[in-house]
Write the structure tokens for this entry.
Amino acid sequence: MSRHVVILLLFTILILPLVTARQAHAEPPFKVNITKAVNYLINRINPALDLIYESDEAGDHWLRREFSSFNWRYHQTYWLYSDNLFAAYALEPFWSDAANRIRNALNRYQVPSSGLFEVVIGEPIPIIRNAVDYVVESSSDYVIVARKHDSPVISYGLYTDLICYRSLQLFIQGRTNEAHRSLRQAISLWNGRGLDDWSFRIVDGFYSNQKLALLLYTSEVVGLKFAAYTEMERHLWSMQLGDGGLASLSNSEGKPMGSSNTETTALALLIYNEALIRSVRSRVQAFEESFLGFYAVSLIFLLVTAASLLPSRKVRSLRPAKN
């Protein structure tokens, strides 16, 4: 071995720990943004309810169009589904005590599942139906509501969030290739400013930032990498406002508008809950293994049954018959 090679090896051995240490202490991307988003959610927990209110938006709540007697403001409105369900899991890796408090509050109300949002945490869901909003509990100071997808009408349309929920639904069923095809449809709606789906084109002309966060989270779960991911992630965090929350909407130029809200901020944080992502993926693997096991047992049963039903043949003897 030459002297130069020996020197190079010694240099590599000496410098490698420094490189490893530098990598280990490297700041994750958007760390400052993530910290601000976590604080945004924590600061909006009602200690009496252990729930986070919807937003600081001023003016009348849009639920007044559904319930004529709805007199509460946005900061008095607490959604079990989806806001606080998402927030509980969003805060889990950053502030577990707060996450547990919210989760216990959700369990305390014993409201049946939403039939949709639970797919984000790896629970199978039925056919996706249109949403119906319910008032769970109210007082003069607050109202607790839940959105459940139990309408008799099946949801359809080129809405990014629906596509993402369907992609997760397919993935949890073990239909990975179909889940990827479905999610690619959502990715194709990205135009550099937002997701150009039916909400933007037909409904109101605004981009929905919670859909962008949901798309990025879904891609992490189903394991689909794509070229525009970094651009989308950067754009998502550009929606962060001074209070630390993410604006729920952006205008046609892709600039944030209106106030931040719990749902968008929580979905953005879910992207970085690696333990949850691994948990959802492990459930899919367990489902696939159990399905394969069931398929194998069923096949063996069919073969045994078929064999037992076949007509028996008489065996000819090679010995001469006795007189």
Summary: Residues 274-309 form the longest helix (36 residues). The CA atoms of residues 193 and 254 lie 4 Å apart. The two ends are 93 Å apart (CA to CA).
